[in-house]
Amino acid sequence: MWCASCLASACAGCACNLCTSAASAVTRRSARLAYCGLFAASLILSFLLRQFAAPLLHHIPWINAFEHTPPDEWFQMNAVLRVSLGNFLFFAIFAIMMIGIKDQNDRRDAWHHGGWIAKIAVWAVLIVLMFCVPNIVITIYEVLSKFGSGLFLLVQVVMLLDFTNNWNDSWVEKDEQKWEIALLVVTVVCYLSTFAFSGVLFMWFNPSGHDCGLNVFFIVMTLILAFAFAIVALHPQVNGSIMPASVISVYCAYLCYTSLSSEPDDYECNGLHMHSKQVSMSALILGMLTTVLSVVYSAVRAGSSTTFLSPPSSPRSGAKNPLLGDEETGKGDGKESEPRPVSYSYTFFHLIFALASMYSAMLLTGWTSAMSEKSELMDVGWTTVWVRICTEWVTAALYIWTLIAPLLFPDRDFS
């Protein structure tokens, strides 16, 4: 128990103190970013525990409850999963509490935006308590996290599509030649990057003298998808644009790279196997950065009533609303008797963070079992390979669907 207390004070205390110092300054307008900061703190805490917590966990009897002590890698992944579980419970509880909120007169609206000292305390206590639960609970959570991570990847793809479409629309609406040139430059750069990157992947992951048909299939499929995006987007009957197609192409090439670089270091077709430790760490950091950015973007985009984060009761004021809109500045403005509708779904907002907590755990543990004794590298293994390549294909399918859906269902509004 002394070790558990030491672990809590040494790790959760640092993040808690940093968050508490700014809690009094959180307003309705910045509450969403404060949740992002709390999530980022959990990522940092997970990473630190993965690197340094194994010696402490060795001395906790209900964690090291084995006749033969597992390797340090097992304790590292176990620590990550426990922090992730505490973070998941925090956001999942809030997601359940916020179900059914329609206007700012609801008492729970204040719970969502205020009380940050209490929230940070609850968050820290939940994480500490997770180091007191038996290993079977962590094993069950690990299995559930793989499904939750898949859902988060879908949310991440939708966010990317939302970002590229809004980026393209904002420049097109300016109706000036310089912005049209900028769109053309971005498109050309993205496509050149896609094809150049694919060529590099052929050199790295299709070494001569080896039968690497699977890797070749992945890379060729990425190139085919890039051409398909352009063809569909430029079709006369499709209301598409070439710039979003080019950005999605680059993202698919990136997913193909992360998938191939996650192949085991002893796989003969992994041309980077001599540097798999470094590649794994760089891919991990980039993956964590992508996760944080997607969560932050989902938080700020939640203020726009044009996104799927918005409930039906939110005001439909168009795409030109600011990301952190004025509708969050207060409740009344002289009309206290008229309840103002909330501008986004609080439940879905917290659900994104809960799913992101699961995904971050899988990212830090390489999607492998905590009982495995062979997981020495982060984010490496055939499970990771297939998860990421499937994410690429789902991204492609969703993007093409956004282009052809208005043709298939002309009576429905997809704006």
UniProtKB/TrEMBL annotation:
Pfam families: Serinc. GO terms for cellular component: membrane. It comes from the Eukaryota. Residues 328-339 have a biased composition (Basic and acidic residues). It is found in: Membrane. Its main location: membrane. It comes from Urochloa decumbens. The chain crosses the membrane at residues 32-49, 79-101, 116-136, 181-205, 212-235, 281-300, 344-364, 385-409. Keywords: Membrane, Transmembrane, Transmembrane helix. This is Serine incorporator. It is a multi-pass membrane protein. Residues 305-317 have a biased composition (Low complexity). The keyword Protease does not apply. Residues 305-340 are annotated as: Disordered. InterPro entries: TDE1/TMS. Belongs to the TDE1 family.
